[in-house]
Amino acid sequence: MKFPFLLSIVILTLDQLTKYAISKFIPYSSCVSIIPFFDFFNITNIHNTGIAFSIFQGKNFLFILLVFLFLCAIIMWLCKNWSKIHEIQRYAFCLVITGGFGNLIDRVLRGAVVDFLDFGINSLRWPAFNIADSCICIAMALILIDILFCSHEVKDFSI
């Protein structure tokens, strides 16, 4: 039971340390080329007050409230159902919580989420993201793998 939570603490710490370092050492809107071949990978200091792919910009307070309520609901559900779910689901939900808290901390302390991982080829760029965003994406992949490849008994997962 403890390992998913310990992993979450380590990842959350790494997320916040990287965001702090980016904010301190790379000026806002600047980038540093890491893999210059085709301008493939850059570290870029971008701030996002919206949600995924920078949509709904400027609604930071709304997202603070929604993410906080969502995280509270997930944590309550997870505490109640911990023994009923598969291990892969435990890791997935812990990663969702980690990612949510990582970006929630940014919204509360910095007024925006710090995004810095910038991939693409020349001008074709994927929107910049961070470690917390990666946690949420990995969690969704784990849930999809669990749904597709793990056998499930029907269980009561009510709140």
Q: Please, could you describe this protein's structure?
A:
By secondary structure, the chain is an alpha+beta fold. It has one domain. The chain has 4 helices and 4 strands. The chain has helices at 2-25, 60-81, 87-110, 131-149, and strands at residues 31-35, 41-48, 113-121, 124-125. The chain has a 4-stranded antiparallel sheet with strand order 1-2-3-4. Strand 1 (31-35) and strand 2 form a beta hairpin. Helix 1 (2-25) runs parallel beside helix 3, helix 2 packs antiparallel against helix 3 (87-110) and helix 3 (87-110) packs antiparallel against helix 4 (131-149). It starts with a helix and ends in a 10-residue tail after the last helix. The model has no long low-confidence stretch (mean pLDDT 90).
Tally of helical runs = 4
Number of extended strands: 4
Largest sheet: 4 strands, antiparallel
Order of strands across the main sheet: 1-2-3-4
Q: State the share of residues found in helices, binned by percent.
A: 55-70%
- Form type: globular
Following the backbone from N to C, one meets helices and strands in this order, namely HEEHHEEH
Query: Would you identify the regions where 5 or more consecutive residues have pLDDT less than 50?
Result: none
